Known about the structure:
Mean pLDDT: 89
Domain Transposase IS204/IS1001/IS1096/IS1165 DDE: 1-43
Distance between the termini: 33 Å
Largest sheet: none
Number of domains: 1
Organism: Actinomyces slackii
Strand content: under 5%
Low-confidence stretches: none
Number of strands: 0
Order of helices and strands: HH
Helix content: 55-70%
Protein name: Transposase and inactivated derivatives
Amino acid sequence: MDGFTSYKTATAEQLPAARAVMDPFHVVSLAGQALDEARHRVQ
């Protein structure tokens, strides 16, 4: 899953026993974005 809220919501409705996971690409991408935002706030 790419982390988009609508996908998670739809999956939870249709497959309530399924476990949501994120692929490593999106995890690293989101972490990089959060780090950049924090860096900009500190500067």
